[in-house]
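Tip: read the tokens left to right.
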């Protein structure tokens, strides 16, 4: 059959990215406790397109993904992108993967176990000479306002927040480790199940550990600075304010080898 995508194009326009977006797809990712975990991801895959080709072969993205979806890790992502780049005769291939990642959490007093979902991201890009790999996780946390505590005769306003940590590293860093960095920096973690003794504990812990979003971002940054495996990071903390009509936000990015 006629290969329309490979027809010559004379408009002389180079496209940096062509591909597929928002593909919902089952994958298997590495799990620190259980080895591997099955989940469902939203996947974007791209290659560049030289100016002399009319289009790319979209079906080949999924064909390549089919081979690698059962073991998403840095080495396999690199192999997958190199195969995609070769098959589509591209200079650059890239992938963006976002998925829910479930961790069993024990309530702090009662010990009740339940699953808590974290949003994780994996991004990779491969050229002939270079491979770039980035991982990230969004961690729901609790923040209690230091200013509110200081100026109020009773109580202090608190709210749920999210801490996003993205890293580039020399060695494997588990999602669970990044989650722990964020939860330690917060006023308190959040849980799926809390009995009354747990709720009392979390309320009092948050009150004893007031945090601005700036505080949380800086505390996470200190932990990432001390982790020798990590050479680049971006930390973003957003608080869904309970008494304001806006959210509070803080961000820090650092390349530790500069």
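Filled-in amino acids:
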């Amino acid at each position: 059959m006629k290969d329309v995508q490979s027809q010559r194009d004379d408009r002389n326009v180079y496209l940096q990215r062509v591909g597929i977006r928002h593909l919902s797809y089952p994958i298997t990712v590495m799990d620190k406790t259980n080895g591997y975990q099955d989940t469902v991801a939203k996947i974007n895959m791209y290659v560049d397109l030289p100016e002399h080709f009319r289009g790319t072969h979209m079906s080949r993205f999924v064909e390549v993904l089919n081979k690698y979806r059962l073991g998403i890790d840095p080495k396999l992502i690199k192999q997958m992108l190199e195969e995609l780049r070769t098959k589509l005769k591209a200079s650059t291939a890239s992938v963006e993967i976002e998925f829910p990642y479930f961790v069993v959490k024990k309530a702090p007093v009662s010990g009740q176990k339940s699953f808590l979902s974290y949003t994780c991201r994996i991004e990779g890009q491969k050229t002939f000479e270079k491979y770039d790999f980035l991982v990230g996780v969004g961690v729901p946390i609790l923040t209690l306002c230091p200013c509110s505590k200081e100026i109020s005769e009773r109580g202090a306003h608190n709210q749920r927040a999210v801490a996003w940590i993205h890293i580039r590293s020399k060695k494997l860093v588990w999602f669970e480790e990044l989650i722990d960095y964020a939860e330690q920096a917060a006023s308190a973690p959040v849980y799926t199940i809390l009995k009354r003794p747990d709720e009392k504990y979390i309320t009092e812990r948050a009150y004893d550990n007031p945090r601005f979003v700036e505080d949380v971002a800086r505390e996470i940054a200190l932990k990432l600075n001390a982790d020798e495996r990590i050479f680049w990071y971006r930390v973003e903390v957003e608080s869904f304010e309970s008494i304001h009509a806006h959210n509070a936000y803080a961000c820090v990015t650092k390349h530790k080898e500069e």
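The first helix runs from residue 59 to 68. The longest strand covers residues 15-31.
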